[in-house]
Predict the structure.
Amino acid sequence: MSTPERSSFLTPRLGVLALGHFTIDAYSSFFLPLLPLLAQRLELNYAMVGGLTAMASLSSSFSQPAFGVWADRMRRPWFVALGPLIAATFMASIGLAPNYATLVALLVLGGVGVAMFHPQTAKLAGASSPKRGLAMSFWVTGGTLGWALGPAYATAVVGRFGLDHTWLAALPGLVLCALLFVWFARVPPIASAKRVDAPLSELRPVARPLAMLYFTVVCRSAVSSGFATFLPLWVHAHGGSTARGGWLTTVYLTLGALGGFAGGWLADRFGGRKVVVTSFALAAPFYVVFFLTSGALAFGALLVGYTVLQASLPVNVVLGQELSPRHAGIISSLLMGAAWGLGALLIYPIGALADRVGLDRALMLLSSLILVGFACASQMVRRPGTPLAAPAGH
């Protein structure tokens, strides 16, 4: 029994999708450990640093719904290769930026590639296996592992070649993208998707649970993106080096990736809504410990809290897709694009606040969104005919 399940789950297509997700998210986080160096070179304050993430999110997140509509009509998954190609080219060029405006432009252009990639691959990953939660977790874990290793890759490249040669980091991504184009040229085309005539009217019956799910994702995204953005600066402010900040960020994000995979596995057994609510409830105390202690204990508490919080990451997308399977691409783009983007936009005011009251206090306010997320997740009441409360068969 285990052999058929394994073969149906680990399909070649799912593996390719996860590999592409790994690649694009590695370049998405590439700039994070370099922020102290870029801030020093370009004389950036915390608000400007927060603005980098916010502006990148405008292109990578809020344009995803448009790409989601487009992806629902494509016969071949070209965005899977084109997205990482664009992201690798521009994200890896940040060391060449002579000023803040150019740096923002490079991140925004790289974000277009991210926007192309996610809706299409999320839809394909969710449909690649009858075990939707596990398949989505595998795909999401590929991305979060890439997001986690991106900082270590960046510090290794800069440590070897210098900040002015970050563009060399694009080479592996460009080679992989070429291989992806060759792969998908051989894959049989997908049957033409039916046009969606009235997506808004069809989504109206699930508007309430979708709205609560949306704001749950916003809260998780704000906390996740905020700490990932400012953690290297937090380490630097506490006497750590750029390399140390990069490696600690990698450990932090890697454990979050494992938490996301575990969340999908748990959702297939206990229900997605339970996993989401529980992840917020259990994460909150660990963030409190982080702010009340110091040293290894504080960082350990942050690692555990983030790992638990990230358990909701793949589950949220599956819950949204199950609300209206016909609109899987659009809903995925809302939850991974517009919701993640809104959460990331909140980083700018957090950075401005850090300039006034200090980084620790600003991050404390940011982490309070965990409680807001818990409240929203608790309101995802199950409607008749929807699978929010438990997986099929339970």
Observations:
- The radius of gyration is 20 Å.
- The domain at 8-187+201-378 is CATH 1.20.1250.20 (Growth Hormone; Chain: A;).
